[in-house]
Structure formats: structure tokens, C-alpha cells
Amino acid sequence: MTLPVKSLIEEVLNDLRRVGGINASAAVTRDGLLIASDVMGEIDAETFAAMTATMTGAAETAMSEVKAGNIQRVIVEGESGKMVSIGAGPNALLVVLTVPDAPLGLLLLKIGEASRKIAKLLG
Amino acid sequence: MQLTEKIKLAIIKGVFERGIFDAKRLMEIDSKKGEFTISGIRSIIVGTLDFAVLHEAAEKIAGNAGPAILRAQGEKVGRIEARKAWRKNMKRFNLSFDVRTVLSTLPAIYAAVGWGKIITTGINMKTEEGTLIIRNCFEADAILELRGEKEKPQCYFVTGYLKGLFGGITGKKFQVTETKCKAAGAEYCEFKITTGRESV
Fold first, then answer.
1. According to CATH, what is the number of the domain B47-195?
2. Kind of pairing, strands A92-98 and B41-43?
3. Residue B151 in contact with partner chain A when CB distance is under 8 A
4. What is the dihedral sign for C-alpha B7, B9, B13, B19?
5. How many whole angstroms separate alpha carbon A87 and alpha carbon A72?
6. B64 part of contact set with chain A, CB < 8 Å
7. From the CA atom positions of chain A, what is the Rg in Å?
8. Parallel, antiparallel, or unpaired for β B129-135 and B189-195?
9. Which chain B residue has the Cα nearest residue A92?
10. CB atoms A34 and B63 under 8 Å
11. DSSP code for B108
12. Domain spans of chain B?
């Protein structure tokens, strides 16, 4: 990937944070490598990328096992936040970490828009 | 007499080649206990095809993210070996624990334990970056034998291992990317090693 593409994806992630309620986000390959991130200091972005890709991959295989079709997104709700993972084209994922009381309806809309932008940038 | 760096590294290589030869004689089987040890360390011998089975299992559980599991596993092993085995041996031979000395001895050691023929001449010792080649890499051969030729490079464990090894030696952050793979039709496996984070 050329540097400008990475910068453009970082811009998409920065724009997403401005929506509010988002603590961190990352674009990762489906096999767990970091493409670009907008994460807090204490989060290791590379480990986060590998973990979230694994989580999404496991969700996909579980759904496939029960013949429930392709997944739209994975949402994990924790005490201190929510994590949303959504496809960004055939080879990438967008993963977003939100505050616990984030309005998911609006955020999912914005996350969906961002994922489509990233998919387009990655071609 | 002041030894030149070249002579010193040649001596180191020789020491390690002899060391590995001795290590073979340090292998012991205790059939009463059912234990196998190398230099007193409890070990098992695992066929390389088991690595291809690990690939399959990781993909079955995590789908496209299977490689992430294998890379993480390799990175952890590389870090542990850098800090424990490599550091210990460097100290034993009164050698500096750095990329130059490790890379000078690594091909002899890893060839002796069956990882393949490693060529480290593509690494710039000053920047610690460059390319590392492995001919007959065990992971690629295992994939080829059990799963056939793939479209993408497959040596995820080795990729993670090299990242962990370099990081463990230097304390820096490295990126390792497999750019050519025998399991994907190339003549050999080639790993690009860079410092810092790089987009993929």
C-alpha cells in the first residue's frame, strides 16, 4: 500500500472520531495485520488488529457452521465500552471502540459509511 | 591480538557449528519415564506436517484470521528464545547480544535443527533491515505437502518468529513480511525486515 492511501484511511478514522462516542478505531486486514489506526496510547494497535480480526474470523466461521449466512458485523458489549467490527471490502475490516453508552444506531450508520470509504480506498 | 570483525564472526560460526554437533550428543531418551531431553530440557519431536495441521485448525476456528494466530504464536516463541536461549548462549561464549552476532550464527543453528537453509546476507547490520531468505523452509514444505500450493505466502509462524526474535534481541519494534514463499510457487521463502511500523 502506498503512503497516501494509509494517510487517507487515517483521515477517515479521524473523521469517525469526530462523530463522538468513539474512543478508538482501526482498519485491519482480515488476516490480522494493521493497516491504519486511531487508537489511545495504552492500546497496542498491532495486537488489537490481530485480536479483532481473529474475533471477527471466529464469528464468521461460527455463523457459517450453523449456516446462518455472511455476518453483517460483530458487536461486543463490555462494561466500559462496545466494540464493533465490520467488513471494509473483501480484504479488510474496520474496528471501532465506543464509550459504553454510545448511541449505536447513529454510530452504526457512520461506521458503515466509513467502512465503505475504506473499502473504496483499498480498491 | 586484535581480531577483525570478520574473523571474530567466522570463529563464532565455527563455535556454534561445533556446539550443535555436541548438542546432538546431549539428546537423551529416558524410556522408563517416557521423556526426551536436549541439554536437560524436556523436549518432544514433532513432525513438520503438524504445522500444516495447525494452519488448518487456525483457519477452521478463525477463518481468514487464522494467520494472525500463527503469527502471534511465532512472535511469542521468537521473543522467548531471544531472551532466554540466545541471550544465555551469547553470554556463555562471551559474545555481544546483538543482531550481528545472532545473524552470523543463526544459519548454522537453524539448519542443524531442520528449519531450512537461512541466508542472512541481505540484512544491513547497521540498520538491522533488509531481506532474509530461507531455502526449504519447514513451514512452507509442510504446507506444500499437506495442503498443496497456495496463492499467498504461508510461513506465518516463521514470520512471527523472526519478528519476535529481532524484537527480543534489540528491544526495537520490527515488521516482518514474507514477500516470496515456496508454498506459493517461489523457489525460496523471502522475508522483508524493517524497523518501526509499516502499513501493509
1. 3.30.1380.20
2. unpaired
3. no
4. positive
5. 8
6. yes
7. 14
8. antiparallel
9. B64
10. no
11. H
12. 47-195
Give, for all 123 residues of chain A, the pLDDT tens digit: 556 899 999 999 999 999 999 999 999 999 999 999 998 777 888 889 999 999 999 999 999 999 999 999 999 999 999 999 999 999 999 999 999 999 899 999 999 999 999 999 998
Task: Write out chain A residues lying below 8 Å of B200, CB-based.
Answer: 1, 29, 33-35
CA distance A26 to B49: 35
Cell numbers for B71: 503469527
> Would the CB atoms of A57 and B200 count as touching at under 8 Å?
no
Smallest CA–CA distance, residue B27 to chain A, in Å, is: 37
Please give the C-alpha separations between residue B155 and each of B30, B95, B183, in angstroms, as whole numbers.
34, 30, 8
Domain spans of chain A, in order of start: 3-122
**Phi and psi at residue B9, in whole multiples of 5°?**
-70, -35
3-state secondary structure of A45: helix
- Distance of alpha carbon B32 from alpha carbon B162, whole angstroms: 37
Class of domain A3-122: alpha beta
Beta strand B41-43 with B117-119 is: unpaired
Please name which of B79, B101, B78, B100 lies closest in space to residue B89, comparing C-alpha atoms.
B101
**How far out from the chain centre does Cα A26 lie?**
5
Q: Which three cell numbers stand for residue A58?
A: 471466529
Is any Cβ of chain B less than 8 angstroms from the Cβ of A57? yes
